[in-house]
Structure formats: structure tokens, C-alpha cells
Amino acid sequence: xxxxxSQAAASLTRTAWLRDQVCEELRDRIITGRLAPxxxxxxxxxxxxxxxxxVPVREAIRILIAEGFLTAASPRRIVVKGYDRKxxxxxxxxxxxxxxxxxxxxxxxxDKAGLAALERLLENARRATxxxxxxxxxxxxxxxxxxxxxxxxxxxxxxxxxxxxxxxxWLFQQVDEPGTLWEEHDxxxxxxxxxxxxxxxxxxxxxxxxYREVALRMLFEE
Length: 222
Known about the structure:
Elements: H1 3-31, E1 40-41, H2 43-50, H3 54-66, E2 70-74, E3 77-80, H4 85-109, H5 112-131, H6 134-152, H7 155-161, H8 165-173, H9 178-193, H10 197-221
Antiparallel strand pairs: 1-3, 2-3
Helix pairs in contact: 1-3, 2-3, 4-6, 4-9, 4-10, 5-6, 5-9, 6-8, 9-10
């Protein structure tokens, strides 16, 4: 590889890294509510804030549009997308189908090391719950569910879920009973660890449906 080619490759790598950093920060602001539905994102302002060119900002915005966090209100106006009841119902429909499958496969395929990792994440979620900090709780519970997906050992399933992970983490913010959420995760872990596939699937289905009720109540009834 020539020097020019090496420099070009390094530039592309740095741009991708900057894009990912900007994307992660903006996604986190949306999930935690620091950016609210309808808030406008301006490339120029963001580039100045993050001390980067507009290219990584533009690419980050494209990713977040694809993930469903942003929407183009007009060709030159990008805003944080709001979710109506149907959007949330649709997201839970997908979560129900994909997570129950993941849990079934995790109960079948998880090894001792994987189960130990899941148990550690469950303990992290317990500590986060005791802290009472919503952002910490959502991160810990999202990590627990991500590990279940890892234990399922299904690359196609994981690639299908990956674009949804940010929105699923957003859902973890919409809960007013974190103690009950942790108890359901504890029951889910125990079912997976017991290798009881049917009990694991039942626990997962019950968990998702209960959480659907909680999220819908918090978002649209209160």
C-alpha cells in the first residue's frame, strides 16, 4: 500500500470512529430524554459542539434515522422522532417474537461461562435497581438482555435485533417499577440456567407482555 493509500485508509478509519462517537452520544441523549421529540439537530451546530467536521455528524444522523430515532421533517430539518402508541405496540410485537426465540435458544445452548456472565449482569442490574438511577437501570437491564442474545448463538437473529437495540434500551427507560423488572429478570435467568426451554419461553413471554402494559401506561395513559 502506498503512502497516499495508507493516509486515505487512516482518514476513513478516523472518520468512522468520530461518526460512531457522535452517534453514540446523540443516541444516548435521545434515550435518556436530554433530546426530546421534536428537538431539531443542526449539522453545523453539532460539528462545532463535537469539534469535528460535518461529515461524521452527517453520517451519524443517517444512522440514527435508520434506527428510528430521528426523522426528516423536511429536506433540511432533522428532528428527534416521537413515538405514538402504534409505534410502541409494533416495537413490542417484534420484541416479543425475537426475545422469546432468543431465550429458547439460550436455554438450549448456553454454556457455564455464558451463564456465569448472565448471572453477573443480573447482579449488576440488582445494584443498578438499588441505586434508583433510571439511566443506570436501563443500561444494566439492556446489557442483561444483550447477553441472552449472545447465549442464543444465532448470528442471523443477532443481526436482526441489532438495529433495534437502541430503541429497546429506550423502552427500558419507560418503567416505574424497576424492582419488579429485576425480579422478572431473575426468574428468567433461573429458567435459562435450569435448561428448561418451555419454562424459559413462558417466562420471557410473560415478562415482555407485562412490560408492554407498563410502558404503554406510562407513555400514553398518565
